[in-house]
Design goal:
The chain is mostly helical and 199 residues long. It has one domain: CDP-alcohol phosphotransferase transmembrane (TM) domain (Four Helix Bundle (Hemerythrin (Met), subunit A)). It has seven helices and no strands. The longest helix has 30 residues. The model has no long low-confidence stretch (mean pLDDT 86).
């Protein structure tokens, strides 16, 4: 197994550790540690792709597992946010539905010998999801520090303290959801012929 593929597997193995840390409410600074783990895992996505292209180590395993690892990581974070009441379930369901739809289209295309490359909307979606997850984690960490008396709590004219942090986090998730839906619609439109001939 080459290095890019090892990084992909490493990213998948980080997911249960990330989830355990994120949900460990009794662990001091657990939001910070979760953000660090998520950041490291997200960076390996950039790193494995860069190494695979640079050293011509692109494999079928990497083509399949790399995007799957990304989806597992982001969806795991968003599902945890629902559990922690940091994200609305309908936003997360829209993102999950989009990922299933695009993955299905890619599988159908692959069966026909076609490769669907990520477009700019898809890249914007991915970046927005990573930013949203990190923003939610860091906003909650700020509130964790406020509870310890280390810093002042987040305060907004319309939503103070913990509610303000949740509200801002929801805005980031909303933006990521909108971009996810738009990119999904673009993929659907661009590859409609593949879907029509799938039967």
């Amino acid at each position: 197994m080459n290095l890019p593929n090892k990084l992909t597997v490493f990213r998948i193995l980080l997911v249960p550790v990330f989830v355990a840390v994120l949900l460990a409410a009794g662990l001091p600074h657990h939001y910070l540690w979760a953000a660090i783990l998520f950041g490291v895992a997200s960076y390996t996505d950039h790193l494995d792709g860069m190494l695979a292209r640079k050293y011509n180590q692109i494999t079928d395993f990497g083509k399949f597992m790399d995007p799957l690892a990304d989806k597992i990581l982001v969806i795991s974070a968003l599902v945890c946010f629902v559990q922690l009441h940091l994200a609305d379930v309908w936003l997360v369901l829209l993102i999950i539905a989009r990922e299933f739809m695009v993955t299905s289209i890619r599988l159908v295309a692959a069966d026909k010998g076609q490769v669907i490359a990520a477009n700019n909307w898809g890249k914007a979606k991915t970046v927005s999801q990573i930013i949203a997850v990190l923003a939610v984690l860091m906003l909650q960490y700020w509130q964790e520090l406020a509870a310890m008396g280390t810093v002042s709590g987040l305060s907004l004219p319309f939503a103070a303290g913990e509610q303000g942090a949740v509200f801002l986090g929801q805005l980031f998730v909303l933006v990521a959801t909108v971009l996810s839906v738009i990119s999904g619609a673009v993929y659907l439109k661009q590859n409609w012929q593949i879907i029509k001939t799938a039967g």
